[in-house]
Amino acid sequence: MAHPAAQNWQDWPEEPELLDLAAAPAPEYGAGSLADLLPTLVAGQGVPGFSASIPELTPADRNCVFLVDGMGWEQIKAHPDEAPYLTSLLGSSRGGTGRPITAGFPATTATSLASVGTGLPPARHGLPGYAVRNPATGELMNQLRWQPWTSPKPWQPYPTVFQLADKAGVATAQVSSPTFQTTPLTKIALSGGTFLGRMTGEERMDLAADRLAAGDRSLVYTYYSELDGAGHRHGVDSDAWRGQLMYVDRLVQRLAEQLPPRTALYVTADHGMVDVPFDEDSRIDYDEDWELGAGVALLGGEGRARHVYAVPGAEADVLTVWREVLGDRFWIASREEALELGWFGTPGECDERVLGRIGDVVAAAQADVAITASRNEPNESALVGMHGSMTAAEQLVPLLEIRT
Predict the structure, then answer these.
(1) CB distance 100 to 398 below 8 Å
(2) Cβ–Cβ contacts within 10 Å for residue 340, how many?
(3) How far is 387 from 395, CA to CA, in rounded Å?
(4) Which of 48, 121, 156, 267 has CB 3.0 to 4.6 Å from 188, enough for a Cys bridge?
(5) Which regions of the chain are under pLDDT 70?
(6) Where are the alpha helices (H) located in 19-130, listed in sequence order?
(7) What's the number of CA atoms in the CB half-sphere (13 Å) around residue 140?
(8) pTM, whole model, 2 decimals?
């Protein structure tokens, strides 16, 4: 007698269809990414060595960048009632085209702030994720918290755009929370000119306007992080997040109303955010999945943008298993494929020192899912809102513009 299951083979589910890597929406490096913003602005101010990478923008004597952590393009569009002023500016984005720019991959704070400050993509500045392997030690290095301690200058050796602008005589300043003044991330990504610490958002807006007026040519960067925190803790569908967006809307208007003459203000973000449901299908727990862990030496990155470091010799097997298990919900690429597809910078481009920081396998979420690690990453695994991947909700960021 035949096995009962054999009689019903027609009812077996088909193998899930793998996501097409070529269809992954790689960032717009070189023409419309966060890494292109400051080089474009300072080129218009006459700073040597830079060119206007974002062709839609026109020069201004005074430039201000207000970066709101976690305020993606899709989130502004979805909340016109909470953000009426920002909504009114959507048509001004990217030089009046009404289009966003891209954050870069992964769409995460450490990577994006390094891209903004250096004017370089991740494959060159070398911060290609939230937590990546340090090839010199074999340990994971958290690039947001800078743990374990790693000497900043060798890790990111390029000068910042702020340093080069200041050297060229542009009045340059960063206005942010005092807690960020001495952090390694600020040192390697955002230093140059004068750092001015202010606690409240209103104080930052007022001081940013003052610093813009301090020179005939000026470049001022200011930053607000609490919107991102509300999204992580409560989700972008929460009242707490909406309240923060309302506050940001008022801050932008406050700054806009104080701008000195000949100024261009650009409001942007480092990434957007996705709420990931709390169920087993949406949150795949790496720490409880022996199959995903087979042949893996280290799991880096974050829930929606993972760097997977294989035991030497197991790279091909790890890639195969991860594709089989997750390839219908994640774009799963080898390091070489990710580089050739332009995920981390211009296709094929990568500094030698950065190669080993990128995973042997790179997994980028396409669905509203995450690869958590309940034992090793309990805090990150408990977050409601997450980001990192190349979906529109995470990758697209505004470049709203106000000129005087």
Answers:
(1) yes
(2) 14
(3) 9
(4) 156
(5) 1-15
(6) 37-44, 73-77, 84-88, 93-96, 109-118, 122-125
(7) 19
(8) 0.95
